[in-house]
Amino acid sequence: MAPSVRERILAAGLERFHALGYDGCGVQEISDTAGVPKGSFYNHFKSKEELAIAVLDQYAASSQREILLDANLAPIDRIRRHFEFCLARHQQNGFDRGCLIANLTAESSTAVPDLQAALRSDLDRWTESLAAAVKAAQEIGQVRSDIKASELARFLVSSWEGCELRTKLTGDRGPLDDFFKMAFALLSNVGPHQL
Predict the structure, then answer these.
(1) Are 144 and 188 within 8 A, CB to CB?
(2) Phi, psi values for residue 112, rounded to 5°
(3) Which of 9, 31, 111, 119 is the most exposed place for a label (fewest CB within 10 A)?
(4) Burial readout 79-109 (b: 16 or more C-beta within 10 A, e: otherwise)
(5) pLDDT for residue 98
(6) What is the dihedral of CA 149, 154, 158, 161, to 10 degrees?
């Protein structure tokens, strides 16, 4: 079944925002990429900001965050598999594109308040899911318990996003490999004096 006009615009928005950033492309370019008239864009989205929010929702939904809540996996494995999925996604897309969430966050300003609010909300939901996995891992001794699960989760998300921005700059996976090395050492069930 052929994608609908809305689906084509969403796919084009994802591709253009990921490749060029929010400010790097306009409605006309997105419409051209989707192969639809500019008027069709406005039949489905009121603005580029509204499209960016829909693209963000779609991107987040495809981030396999449900792995973090999978009770069939040991909690530490949930965390590792989630970030391994994120790494594989970047490898597939090319490391020079970075993460759409990090890119939009770096570019967002008070000129796009709804997008900023959507980004904050998405990062909060991601952090909460990660915190649930961290807390479950703490409860069975897989992760250190001298730091609150919510703080560890917030740090991991912020660190991952920062490493993704640096990966976009370097065009290779080195910063993400650093994340895995350092993040799982931090989570390790040992005291801070032993790290």
Answers:
(1) yes
(2) -125, 65
(3) 111
(4) bbbbbeebbebbeeeebebbbbbbbbbebbe
(5) 80
(6) 80
Closest CA to 115 of 162, 165, 56: 56
At 192, the pLDDT band (50, 70, 90 cuts) reads very low
DSSP reduced 3-state for 177? helix
Which of 185-188's residues contact partners 24+ apart within 8 Å by CB, and which partners? 186/144, 186/152, 186/155, 187/76, 187/79, 187/134, 187/137, 187/143, 187/144, 187/152, 188/143, 188/144
Q: Which two tokens stand for residue 5?
A: 């006009």
List the beta strands (DSSP E) in the chain. none
> What mean pLDDT, rounded, does the chain reach?
92
